[in-house]
Design goal:
two-stranded antiparallel ribbon, 455 residues, 9-stranded mixed sheet, 2 domains, Rossmann fold, 11 strands
């Protein structure tokens, strides 16, 4: 800890009585005056997040004369597939109560700061407690989480140079399926009514190059919701050359530097002083215009035919239809080598000539189905982190282009197989090839839906 600051360890009860641990960082020595304002920092999304992730902000704010509480985020009840903003808000309220009791702090001057996901949590906590005297939001989002996430991953992919159906169609389709399967927590949480119920002064901060929260769309929604609730004590500030967390970025939001945007910490210190003395600015918006290349797009709940269960059934059909064809061929070959072929097999079942196109449908369809989901999962997991999805050709990932080519080949193979099957398929092949054709027929609308047959 720097010599000009002091740290005190604290513990408190969060939601459900869970004990959480944190640190209060305050000015030391002569600067440790009594009657200080304090602020609780609420993490963004992430599992296993420790307090030191926000240590840079805590040190910067403490040097502005504030006492700052940072704490380890809960892991119980919080994971990639499970979380509750209400529960996280109650955790934050436990931290607020603890900070208000610390020596030297004026309990009437304690507020809350939320980053990213914390931008949903902090307003919820503030709406529940009059003990919170102000709210600071950084990279906050006024949209539904699923809408924000699909935009963020798409923005990351576009930043990497990706264009076409993969980013416009396939990526949001995947997220809708994930949400329908219950694997995306709080997908349709609506923050606007909560924002409208916040009565405390609000400081909203956005980096101009935010690639995780749409920086052009979000602030007007915040302002409209606050004013709908009669709250005009808000200050919005945009910082140039800053990213989602208002840290400096040298390359338009791709790289985050350790340093905060110049003037960010000073703004927090001065604004808190004004807000806690009853002089919070009214409807003030300053700073350069944010950069947002694409608008967000609504992500409605899946229709019945898009539901995760239906998609899962389609995958089972593909695995059976496409995978069953070579499996049966392998079994027949093993049986022939073992000399246990049946009389029917000797008569022609095991020796039947392959139907033209059948192996293309089997191999192509199976490769597309498995390969598409493996690649899509990888791209979604890394897209929001601005990782390149591999080599690009005309803005299309090379791997995705290969899968699209195989998808077209599978459709062509299905047509050829269907024609040959109906004309002269051997009796022993009718069921096996019929199942393969059924899989190929279902594959066409499925591949269109997932963007595999779209440019």
């Amino acid at each position: 800890m720097p010599e000009d600051l002091a740290a005190a360890e604290v513990s408190f009860q969060g939601s459900g009585g869970l004990v959480l641990h944190g640190s209060v960082i305050s000015p030391a020595g002569a600067r440790a005056r009594s009657g200080r304002a304090g602020v609780v920092l609420v993490h963004g999304a992430g599992t296993g997040t420790k307090r030191d992730k926000l240590l840079g902000e805590a040190v910067a704010f403490a040097r502005q004369g504030l006492s700052v509480l940072i704490y380890d985020k809960r892991s119980e009840g919080y994971s990639l597939f499970e979380r509750s903003y209400s529960q996280l808000a109650d955790d934050a309220l436990g931290a607020v109560r603890t900070l208000r009791r610390q020596p030297g702090i004026d309990p009437a001057k304690v507020g809350i700061w939320g980053l990213s996901e914390g931008g949903w949590v902090a307003p919820l906590a503030a709406s529940r407690s009059k003990d919170i005297s102000f709210v600071i939001l950084v990279g906050a989002n006024a949209l539904q989480p699923l809408r924000q996430q699909t935009w963020a991953v798409a923005a990351g992919l576009r930043k990497a140079g990706v264009r076409g159906s993969f980013v416009d169609r396939t990526e949001p389709t995947m997220y809708r399926a994930i949400a329908d399967a219950g694997m995306f927590p709080e997908p349709y949480y609506d923050p606007e009514p909560v924002i409208a119920s916040v009565r405390q002064p609000v400081l909203g901060i956005w980096g101009v190059h935010d690639l995780l929260t749409p920086p052009r769309e979000t602030p007007p929604i915040f302002a409209k919701a606050l004013e709908k609730g009669g709250n005009r004590q808000y200050t919005f500030r945009f910082f140039a050359d800053a990213d989602h967390a208002a840290h400096r970025t040298p390359d338009g939001g791709v790289t985050r530097l350790p340093e905060l945007a110049p003037g960010y910490a000073e703004l927090v210190g001065s604004w808190v002083g004004e807000a806690t003395s009853g002089r919070a600015p009214v409807a003030q918006v300053t700073g350069p215009a944010p950069v947002q290349a694409e608008d967000t797009v609504a992500v409605p709940a899946a229709e019945w035919w898009e539901a995760a269960g239906v998609q899962g059934a389609a995958l089972v059909l593909f695995l059976v239809a496409f995978g069953g064809y070579p499996v049966v061929a392998l079994i027949r070959r093993v049986r022939r080598r073992g000399g246990v072929s049946s009389a029917v097999g000797r008569a022609g079942q095991g020796e039947a000539a392959p139907v033209k196109g059948a192996w293309l449908v089997s191999a192509g369809g199976l490769t597309v189905v498995v390969g598409a989901f493996v690649y899509l999962f990888y791209s979604i997991m890394t897209g929001g982190k601005l990782a390149s999805p591999g080599p690009l050709v005309a803005g299309r990932p090379l791997i995705w282009l290969a899968l699209q080519a195989l998808a077209i080949a599978t459709v062509v193979g299905t047509v050829l197989t269907c024609v040959r099957w109906r004309r002269s398929a051997p009796v022993g092949e009718r069921v096996r090839v019929g199942l393969l054709v059924a899989g190929g027929v279902v594959f066409v609308p499925w591949a269109l839906y997932w963007g595999l047959l779209l440019p």
